[in-house]
Write a sequence for this structure.
């Protein structure tokens, strides 16, 4: 039995300990804001926060999550949109939107460790998140605006 | 009306509601019918609203306006931009509008959301839908006030009596308006352009908040009560079949319930399931794990001979030989025989995969002779057709709900994956959710075709072509629907080939035969991609050969402003009437001049390793010129600092979405030009995920794309696709300018640029 907190709520899991967190969130908790894109840690659609750090939920097995605190996109905005989400809306970032949960979770993690990232640092931090629609320039602009707002 | 209560009552999406997270998103989806209930009208709030003069709109007594989005939302914003047109003509307050997604139903007209024609085909329909409701509300108010309707007009969500200033809100008028006859189209008083509130103004997406908060519902997120999950092991080669299999190990995987065969398709494959074996499980992970443990012996069939390296050689050989003539003027051969300066070049683009971020996925339930499906589809009507055919039930017994799409790019207008879910549901007696992995998506696509283009031109004394021959060869999309189809259709050739807009006296356009060995389908911009690549790269080559500036040369190739006469040529013009949407070289010239001016073309000296390239292309009846700036470092690494795209799409319904589409097109183009390549070995696709089929990351994408929309009153053209075709040759022409290396074969990753 694995005990963990997801968005502040206690859960216990006694399924296949090798099952990645992604499928636990999506199929068992119905927290579908976290997306499946590649299954092998290449696209970033599945990014969530584990104890405050961005991780790829598609390659993080449940057995590693005893006592873990997981935050998903649904947990980011319980008290209204996060400043990063507000910036996303301001710049009208999403096209199809499917990758944007992961993009936002990566951007929040970036800004929590670097409050004023340069273009290069943004590129570096965000180049694990694929957007097939090609919203990158708006993502970059939104991150800068969010950085400014929280500075 | 409490949507959440309705959802609970039906038990639909049960389990999601407990999380609280998705309640809002339920509003985004059409309300599903009760189990087994046939849908023929009455399926939307719009239909049930008090005033509902059209399938697209309803006004309720509380003032809520329901507008039906019948086209699929895959990121273009169409789910917002068409309803905004209705709202505009209705003078509705957008805050009081609820957009509902239509199920597949022909009463809405065609719903196949591809070919960049949603606005073109439905702009007027939406205006009339809104204008009809507006006129009925005006007439109802006039009757109540006992004044002539001509004295009344609408303000925001209300009717106003001009002489007295009296006002009545739409909600208060809905009941009275609903008792009036629906006016004829001719009686409508549609707004003048200057009166538009929303059209052309760049309103944000109806779904913006949901999209930024994880609450939007995609096909991947749809659930049905009691559903099980399926992963399908498809035959590795197209047309392959299962000889024998052993599922003992698969069944041992925790959570795996059963293994179910899916019959192979009957050629031609069209939208039928590929066949194979499905692993049915309690969750997606178990289904994927179980599939890995299947032991299958395949009969690979005749397509196991397909090897991309050999095929490419054969394609080039075909392209070098005379072929079927699609357009001919003058006598190119006579001109070539005269000698002088004759140039030849061959171009090649490999297969591409769509790779939408959301792989194909569908949930379907077969019960009592009816199928209910929830899926990310570009074409719910094609879902109805293929599911009906596979299960031998009438098409009206297939209810296809459309979720948001996590990207489409053409892949999701082919509903093979939805048919799989329906077929499996019938076999296992429960709702089944079929989830394609990324590997399934890359290995079992409907690929963009592989193409070779042969180009030949004779230059006159001024360096201008006196003769131009172009010949393309590619396995056509028709091969998906007709066995052995080997020639490009008029539609494919009409995408940047037969419609070459150049002013050249001797011109010959040909197409050679090619056999398909994988499923060929349309991918964003379709045949325009390879045709524009060849024509616009070759034009740049000729400019340099003639010692001319590429922009000036391009303008000279196009010649004076005129309407291109394509009489006698089988030219479908993407389904648009040629009289309303002719090829106007003046518009082509204007976008070239605009892109050149905005980019500062020829104005400043670029440093070592830097270059600019230009290309122009009309597709989906929209005119686009793109200037790309590149930097190539001493190791040959390319960066794209700036892209300038000038667009004449006629009237643009939502400039904000239009700009976003052209920004995205530059990234899509960068992906395919830099690294896009799907190949086969012995009929098996070599690539499988983003490590061997890379798409542009933030660091690879153009750093900045500026989009310049030409202000135009011409009828609306396409937006989603026309940005891709000129980007690719403009990038390669820029690489030439920067390095002196001419790129005739994609992807760029195959070339050493130092």
């Amino acid at each position: 039995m694995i005990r963990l907190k997801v968005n502040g709520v206690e859960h216990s899991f006694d399924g296949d300990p090798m099952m990645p967190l992604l499928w636990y969130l999506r199929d068992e908790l119905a927290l579908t804001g976290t997306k499946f894109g590649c299954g092998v840690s290449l696209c970033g659609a599945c990014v969530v926060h584990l104890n405050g750090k961005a991780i790829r939920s598609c390659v993080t097995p449940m057995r590693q999550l005893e006592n873990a605190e997981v935050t998903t996109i649904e947990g980011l905005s319980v008290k209204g949109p996060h400043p990063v989400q507000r910036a996303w809306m301001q710049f009208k970032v999403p096209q199809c939107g499917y990758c944007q949960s992961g993009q936002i979770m990566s951007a929040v993690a970036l800004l929590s460790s670097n409050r004023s990232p340069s273009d290069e640092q943004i590129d570096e931090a965000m180049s694990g998140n694929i957007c097939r629609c090609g919203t990158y320039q708006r993502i970059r602009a939104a991150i800068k605006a969010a950085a400014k707002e929280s500075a | 009306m409490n949507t959440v209560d309705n959802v609970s009552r039906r038990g639909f999406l049960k389990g999601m509601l407990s999380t609280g997270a998705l309640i809002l998103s339920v509003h985004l989806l059409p309300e599903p019918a009760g189990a087994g209930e046939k849908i023929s009208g009455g399926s939307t709030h719009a239909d049930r609203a008090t005033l509902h003069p059209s399938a697209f709109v309803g006004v309720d007594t509380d003032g809520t306006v329901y507008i039906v989005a019948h086209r699929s939302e895959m990121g273009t914003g169409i789910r917002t931009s068409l309803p905004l047109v209705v709202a505009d003509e209705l003078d509705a307050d957008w805050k009081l509008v609820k957009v509902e997604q239509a199920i597949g139903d022909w009463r809405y007209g065609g719903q196949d959301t591809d070919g960049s024609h949603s606005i073109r085909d439905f702009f007027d329909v939406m205006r009339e839908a809104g204008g009809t409701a507006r006129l009925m509300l005006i007439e109802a108010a006039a009757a109540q006030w006992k004044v002539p309707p001509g004295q009344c007009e609408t303000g925001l969500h209300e009717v106003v009596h001009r002489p007295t200033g009296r006002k009545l809100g739409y909600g208060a008028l809905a009941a009275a308006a609903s008792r009036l006859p629906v006016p004829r189209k001719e009686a409508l008083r549609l707004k003048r352009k200057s009166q538009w509130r929303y059209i052309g103004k760049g309103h944000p997406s109806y779904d913006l908040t949901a999209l930024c908060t994880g609450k939007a519902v995609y096909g991947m997120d749809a659930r049905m009560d009691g559903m099980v999950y399926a992963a399908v092991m498809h035959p590795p080669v197209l047309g392959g079949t299962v000889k024998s299999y052993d599922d003992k190990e698969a069944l041992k995987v925790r959570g795996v319930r059963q293994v179910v065969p899916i019959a192979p398709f009957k050629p031609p494959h069209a939208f039928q399931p590929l066949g194979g074996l499905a692993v049915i499980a309690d969750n997606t992970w178990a289904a994927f794990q179980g599939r890995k443990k299947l032991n299958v012996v395949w009969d690979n069939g005749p397509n196991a001979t397909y090897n991309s390296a050999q095929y490419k050689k054969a394609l080039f050989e075909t392209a070098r030989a005379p072929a079927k003539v699609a357009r001919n003027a003058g006598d190119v051969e006579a001109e070539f025989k005269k000698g002088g300066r004759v140039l030849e070049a061959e171009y090649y683009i490999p297969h591409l995969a769509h790779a939408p971020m959301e792989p194909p996925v569908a949930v379907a339930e077969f019960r009592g002779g009816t199928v209910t499906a929830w899926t990310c589809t570009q074409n719910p009507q094609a879902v109805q057709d293929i599911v009906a055919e596979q299960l031998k039930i009438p098409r009206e017994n297939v209810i296809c709900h459309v979720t948001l799409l996590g990207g489409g790019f053409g892949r999701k207008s082919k509903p093979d994956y939805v048919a799989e879910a329906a077929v499996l549901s019938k076999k296992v007696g429960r709702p089944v959710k079929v989830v394609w992995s990324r590997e399934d998506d890359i290995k079992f696509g409907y690929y963009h075709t592989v193409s070779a283009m042969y180009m030949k031109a004779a230059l006159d004394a001024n360096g201008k072509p006196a003769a131009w021959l172009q010949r393309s060869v590619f396995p056509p999309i028709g091969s998906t629907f007709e066995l052995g189809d080997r020639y490009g259709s008029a539609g494919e050739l009409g995408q940047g080939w037969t419609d070459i807009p150049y002013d050249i006296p001797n011109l010959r356009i040909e197409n050679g035969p090619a056999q398909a060995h994988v499923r060929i389908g349309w991918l964003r911009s379709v045949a325009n991609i390879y045709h524009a690549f060849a024509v616009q790269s070759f034009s740049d080559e000729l400019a340099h050969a003639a010692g001319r500036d590429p922009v000036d040369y391009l303008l000279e190739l196009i010649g004076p402003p005129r309407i291109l006469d394509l009489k006698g040529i089988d030219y479908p013009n993407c389904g648009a009437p040629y009289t309303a949407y002719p090829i106007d070289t003046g518009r082509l010239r204007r976008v070239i001049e605009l892109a050149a001016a905005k980019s500062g073309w020829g104005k400043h000296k670029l440093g070592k390793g830097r270059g600019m390239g230009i290309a122009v292309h009309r597709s989906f009846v929209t005119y686009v010129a793109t200037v790309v700036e590149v930097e190539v470092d001493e190791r040959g690494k390319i960066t794209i600092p700036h892209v300038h795209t000038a667009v004449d799409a006629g009237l643009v319904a939502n400039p904000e979405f239009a700009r976003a589409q052209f920004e995205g097109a530059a990234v899509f183009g960068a992906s395919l030009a830099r690294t896009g390549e799907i190949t086969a070995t012995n009929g098996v696709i070599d690539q499988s995920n983003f490590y061997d089929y890379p798409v542009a990351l933030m660091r690879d994408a153009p750093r900045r794309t500026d989009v310049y929309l030409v202000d135009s009153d011409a009828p609306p053209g396409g937006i989603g696709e026309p940005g891709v075709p000129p980007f690719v040759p403009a990038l390669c022409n820029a690489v030439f300018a920067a390095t002196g290396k001419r790129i005739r074969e994609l992807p760029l990753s195959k070339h050493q640029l130092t």
Summary: Chain A has a mean pLDDT of 97. Chain A touches chain B through 61 residues (CB under 8 Å). The longest strand of chain A covers residues 2-6.
